[in-house]
Amino acid sequence: MKKEIKSIGVLFVMLIVCASVCLAPVSESVNIDVSLINQNPDPAEPGKYVELKWKVENMGSSNAENVIFEILPKFPFSLDPGESTTQNIGSVWGRQIGDNGVIVTYRLKVDENAVEGQNEIEIRYSLDNGINWQKPGKFYINIRTHDAILNVKKVSYDPDPMPPGKKTVLSIELENMADSLLKDIKISLNLITILQSATSISYTELPFSCFGTTNQQVIKNIGAGKTKTVEFTLIPDPDAASDVYKIPITIEYSDELGTNYSKSEVIGVVVGDEPILEPIIDSTNIYTKGKVGEVDISFVNKGTTDVKLLDVELKESDYVKVISSPEVYLGNIDSDDYEIAEFKIYVNDLDDSRVPLIINYNYLDPTNNKYEKQETLYLDVYSSKEAKKYNLDGAGGSSGGIFAVIIIIVIGYFGYRWWKKRKKHQ
Asked: What are 355-396's pLDDT values in tens digits?
């Protein structure tokens, strides 16, 4: 019985305390409270608009009359031209709180160069029609770029194309297309590609090696709208084929809010030297002027780069008349190989011991760069006396031919006499 009386007493005391708290007046005067209740969108984006909503409540028991609310926009926030910074709220009744509070809305433009993160916005209010002003505290608006974009703006290398076995400086220019700072930027060249299947792992290695550095470079930061360049020194393998190679790269970076990003790109580079194609007279059966004969011109590829679609033309001149087709198509010539163009010509009888052969030729390298060249080769010719002396063009062998005829005649003569004698004795 005593315990029940004691419990009822405790409960009665609690009810009295609760009633005193609930019924006690908060304040006998005006007590304005301002809170930021909404930001749309959240976060706001540089270069776009954000809508802000404040709730104005009167926590006191007395009415607030002639209430004026004012926003004080500063960078990176601004109102559109013609929009007023003040709003006349009028009266806020005592204990006008919660859902009954007054909502004040502003639409602000966020500057394109706004810094990501929390940006302060100031407001104030007046309870005497703008004579005296009060600031309720600090408010912060969250700003963040929608996408922190780091763009590969330009790729270059010197020399171009990359010669096999020689150092080349590869430059990659990066552009920060975001509206805020990007930091901790890592650029990696993926020279080895890992191919993984359900049963095995294989590796594909590009014919490049980094020289003097690793395959990764780091940039501390890039400001909004700025660019920075990283350089890699590459050496193509000495036996790397002339071709266009695709190098995958990976770029990792962070924004000012600590969000991490990673993107993959592919850059293209050309490996190869300028072709070294040398025409030479390979053979001929023309040794004297005023003769028709053949001349073979050999095209030797002395470089490391293959040649394709080689087309050759022998030009006519005062010295040479081309009897055969003046144009010969030789096609492709691999490195350290050759092809021969054959021409039939007539050499005019002019007072010169060297006959110029004017050759026009054009071809492509493996990346379809076109080369057009003209060369003049010289064909040595001799007088009849010199040709006989050097046993050229059958001149030195004419006496041998006469001697052979004489032998045939002698053999025929004695053979005839032997035949007649034999016939007579029969």
From this structure: 999 999 999 988 888 999 999 999 988 877 777 777 775 544
CATH number for 277-389 (one of 3.40.50.1110, 2.60.40.10, 3.10.310.70, 3.30.70.2740): it is: 2.60.40.10
- Place domain 27-143 in its CATH homologous superfamily: Immunoglobulins (2.60.40.10)
| Per-residue 3-state assignment (H helix, E strand, C coil) for the chain | CHHHHHHHHHHHHHHHHHHHHHHCCCCCCCCEEEEEEEEECCCECCCCEEEEEEEEEECCCCCEEEEEEEEECCCCEECCCCCCCEEEEEEECCCCCHHHCEEEEEEEEECCCCCCEEEEEEEEEECCCCCCCECCCCEEEEECCCCCCEEEEEEEEECCCECCCCCEEEEEEEEECCCCCEEEEEEEECCEEEEECCCCEEEEECCEEECCCCCEEEEEEECCCCEEEEEEEEEECCCCCCEEEEEEEEEEEEECCCCEEEEEEEEEEEECCCCCEEEEEEEECCCECCCEEEEEEEEEECCCCCEEEEEEEEECCCCEEECCCCEEEEEEECCCCEEEEEEEEEECCCCCCEEEEEEEEEEECCCCCEEEEEEEEEEECECHHHHHHCCCCCCCCHHHHHHHHHHHHHHHHHHHHHHHHHHHHC
pLDDT score of 267 more than 50:
yes
Query: CATH assignment of 150-271, given 3.90.470.10, 2.120.10.30, 3.40.50.300, 2.60.40.10?
Result: 2.60.40.10
